[in-house]
Amino acid sequence: MTESALSPELEAVVAAAEASAASFAATRPEDRAGAIVAIADALEAAKARLVEIAMRETGLTEARLNGEVTRTAVQLRLFADTLVDGAYLDARIDPADPDFVLGPRPDVRRTHLPLGPVINFSASNFPFAFSVLGGDSAAILAAGCPLIVKAHSGHPELSDATAEVALAALRGTGMPDGIFQLVHGRDAGVEILKDPRIKAGSFTGSIGIGRLLADIAAARPAPIPFYGELGSVNPVFITADAIAERADAIASGYLTSVSGSAGQLCTKPGFVFIPEGSALPAAIATTGTDLPEHRLLGPRIAQSFADRRDAILASTGVRPVLAGAIRFDEDGQGWATPTVVAVSLDDFRSGREALVEEAFGPLSILVEVPAGTDLAALMPEFYEGNLTGTLHLSEREATGETENAGELRALVSAISRQVGRVLFNGWSTGVAVTPAQQHGGPWPATTNDSSTSVGTAAIARFQRPVAYQNAPAAFLPAALRDDNPLGVPQAFSPAGESPQWGARWR
């Protein structure tokens, strides 16, 4: 290996991760699961101290942060069960078959192995759930990969305190040294990402920084996978019948979703397509009169939001439904109340370049659509990829038996092609931590639209497939052995089946 270009401090971090990779990959699933659960338990035990730090550094509320600690612990425990269950290993066994239709088939067995050391770049807006011990970190550790976390500059003290909790828990369970480390500084993260000993990267943040990091990972002499969650405006479509049925309830849910955590959520509904002349803007104006102001995460984010808000309000045809406001205190922190604006579809089309970009903060745009508009055509017209797309239907429309059912099915199909999660009669903020969850989508929502950062499938990002041919039992990974000591699901393709492949379709 060529001499390292890293500083002595960073070289020690990467070297420790590399040195621990083989021993960590070889740990029993039950032992890794126990270590991950120990981290979850320790995190909850330290909740009060960590939340106090997080409130001070991020401006998020105590209730929100307490809930986020719980969510983070649940994520960790979910991955503990996932790695013991073993379905993610996708173990496949094709026994030797002397009568295989293409000639004698060797014994072929396939499973997944850990990639090796991974660097995870923390998010600003989820100081627990997408940060030091967040979903990416949980998946990386569950996969058996040494983890280096690049702390977010918006909550450095919290990052250090959370890392201390994790390290104490891992040491207490006898895990190898070097499997969990924390670094600070963008330059440090970039230099580690470039190092050939790092085998993958993950990131949650802006499109600009995410693209920069993804390009670095792809431009390495040996490119590596990079899983970035970047930007999303999460379009919503609301039918006339739904508004007539429950305008006030829709308005209330919408404002809660837009204003929660000061709108600093990647799943916030940024654009809502509604029928021209509907009662929803008035319902929103009435419902949103007393919403409290909320501090944004930091001065840089607050200033960016203020600039984006000004640009939107200055766009042709845009009119305030809720004017909202943002003020700056003596420390440069921004305090905002929600801004909701409306614009005609024609003005939205003509002002697309100024309007369609994500506004990271409590702002959302209602797009008023004339009757007879092909809603399905609006998705590819305005958007590349998003994390979510939402439909609000009336009770009758939800049966799929109304006169507009064909149009709604076409809209669902169009949305499905451009998002990772399709919602009905709900709001996209609040991502359920559950095995079937998909939290990803086509660019620029993520850098890899076949993966997810939430749900048990997230572990697959940090493993790679390996096949073993005619391997003696003594040299097989445990997941591929006939006695199946791990008790994981195994898919078999028995000998003698190949002559019947496709027969059912003749």
From TrEMBL:
Top enzyme class: oxidoreductase
Taxonomic superkingdom: Bacteria
GO molecular function: aldehyde dehydrogenase (NADP+) activity
Start and end residues of each Aldehyde dehydrogenase domain: 8-370
InterPro entries, alphabetized: Aldehyde_DH_dom (IPR015590), Aldehyde_DH_Superfamily (IPR050740), ALDH_KGSADH (IPR044151)
EC number: 1.2.1.4
Pfam families found in the cross-reference section: Aldedh
Alphabetical UniProt keywords: Oxidoreductase
Listed name of the protein: NADP-dependent fatty aldehyde dehydrogenase
